[in-house]
Amino acid sequence: MSQPKTRLPIIFILITLILDAIGIGLILPVMPDLIRDIEGVGLSDAAIWGGILATSFAVMQFLCGPLVGNLSDRYGRRPVLLISLATMALDYVVMALAGSIWLLFAARIVGGITAATQATAGAFIADISPPERKAARFGLIGATFGIGFVLGPLIGGFLGELGPRAPFWAAAALATANLIFGWFVLPETVTDRIRRPFEWRRANPLGAFREMGRLPGVRPLLALFFLYECAMFIYPAIWAYFTQYRFGWSTGTIGISLAMFGIGIAAVQGGLIRVILRVLGERGTVWYGLSYNFVAFLIIGLVDNSTAILLMTPLLALGAVVTPAILGLMSKAAHDNQQGELQGAISSTRSVAMILSPIAMTQIFAAFTREGAPMILPGAPFLLAASLMIVCALVFVARSESRAPA
């Protein structure tokens, strides 16, 4: 497919992926108010429901990613992407109109399915890209998540000032506009030459876990990766509830703080990480990141100063260097013919962390903030995250000692 013919489809794919990321960040600032509006409960109980909704979204994304990808191999990229976008737009309308928590729960389940189109979008890019341009175009895909995570909280926060349902109407309009755009510019790239029959065994999301036993050199690092991801998911899981409870932040302030964090992440991952890795190496970077995050979690959990925490928000990203370093160590520990298998295991491990962390963090927040709690400590989830940094360090030490020469 020539360059002029690929430009508009690529723009459509990138917009679709940005909307996926926006959909995650969009609801974070307004979810506490929306749940309280629907259920008439306090912030502690709203946090519990928020954890359930986040986990249901992650579960469906985990289960349906391979399924949606395999459907696109059989029926084509175009119908899968367009149907997902149409469903996404309708899902946002349902969330905007939801009058019960169960309808909101159902909408989050559907939202998790529609957000599982990332593999299909990546497959479309691979279909239309010559070998020499694949890496650069996949780099664009990576950039969309950073853009979406910055825009999502900003849109959700500012529109949330108009009411907790306003951001969902805006998201529905964006998804609908992109659907119309895609209808006219998106070609089908699956031909009879590459089409394959649908098989349930290929759509199994647990397949990567079955193969982990063949990667003994990286199993401790996968355990470390899982614990670290569980700790870091505290920000999307609890930040809106925590800052509203402790500091009384509005949805706009919450959105700004999350966007500042997203910008910091983009700066660290896009440039600073290279400097840190060059100076400290991968092992040193892991130790620096674990130490930095330990201190940051303690400060957030214990310091009761709204201005200090808001100013500190972009600096929190300076600790977001552990994941690239761990991935580098795992890639070196696996053989060349195991790299694809390793990436599958990493993806599945991250998905499980996304499922478990919101439930755990919101339950702890609720236990330490609801009326009658033995101790009022809204920062308790962050203290747990600090403790997980210590456990990560112990796992890393044990792994290093087990590899030391006798």
Automatic annotation (TrEMBL):
<dbReference type="InterPro" id="IPR005829">
    <property type="entry name" value="Sugar_transporter_CS"/>
</dbReference>
<keyword id="KW-1133">Transmembrane helix</keyword>
<dbReference type="Pfam" id="PF07690">
    <property type="entry name" value="MFS_1"/>
</dbReference>
<feature type="transmembrane region" description="Helical">
    <location>
        <begin position="109"/>
        <end position="126"/>
    </location>
</feature>
<feature type="transmembrane region" description="Helical">
    <location>
        <begin position="48"/>
        <end position="68"/>
    </location>
</feature>
<dbReference type="GO" id="GO:0022857">
    <property type="term" value="F:transmembrane transporter activity"/>
</dbReference>
<keyword id="KW-0472">Membrane</keyword>
<keyword id="KW-0812">Transmembrane</keyword>
<dbReference type="InterPro" id="IPR011701">
    <property type="entry name" value="MFS"/>
</dbReference>
<dbReference type="GO" id="GO:0016020">
    <property type="term" value="C:membrane"/>
</dbReference>
<comment type="similarity">
    <text>Belongs to the major facilitator superfamily. TCR/Tet family.</text>
</comment>
<protein>
    <submittedName>
        <fullName>MFS transporter</fullName>
    </submittedName>
</protein>
<dbReference type="InterPro" id="IPR036259">
    <property type="entry name" value="MFS_trans_sf"/>
</dbReference>
<feature type="transmembrane region" description="Helical">
    <location>
        <begin position="138"/>
        <end position="160"/>
    </location>
</feature>
<comment type="function">
    <text>Resistance to tetracycline by an active tetracycline efflux. This is an energy-dependent process that decreases the accumulation of the antibiotic in whole cells. This protein functions as a metal-tetracycline/H(+) antiporter.</text>
</comment>
<feature type="transmembrane region" description="Helical">
    <location>
        <begin position="7"/>
        <end position="28"/>
    </location>
</feature>
<dbReference type="InterPro" id="IPR001958">
    <property type="entry name" value="Tet-R_TetA/multi-R_MdtG-like"/>
</dbReference>
<feature type="transmembrane region" description="Helical">
    <location>
        <begin position="166"/>
        <end position="186"/>
    </location>
</feature>
<keyword id="KW-0813">Transport</keyword>
<feature type="transmembrane region" description="Helical">
    <location>
        <begin position="375"/>
        <end position="398"/>
    </location>
</feature>
<feature type="transmembrane region" description="Helical">
    <location>
        <begin position="221"/>
        <end position="242"/>
    </location>
</feature>
<feature type="transmembrane region" description="Helical">
    <location>
        <begin position="254"/>
        <end position="273"/>
    </location>
</feature>
<feature type="transmembrane region" description="Helical">
    <location>
        <begin position="285"/>
        <end position="303"/>
    </location>
</feature>
<dbReference type="InterPro" id="IPR020846">
    <property type="entry name" value="MFS_dom"/>
</dbReference>
<feature type="domain" description="Major facilitator superfamily (MFS) profile">
    <location>
        <begin position="9"/>
        <end position="403"/>
    </location>
</feature>
<feature type="transmembrane region" description="Helical">
    <location>
        <begin position="80"/>
        <end position="103"/>
    </location>
</feature>
<feature type="transmembrane region" description="Helical">
    <location>
        <begin position="351"/>
        <end position="369"/>
    </location>
</feature>
<feature type="transmembrane region" description="Helical">
    <location>
        <begin position="309"/>
        <end position="330"/>
    </location>
</feature>
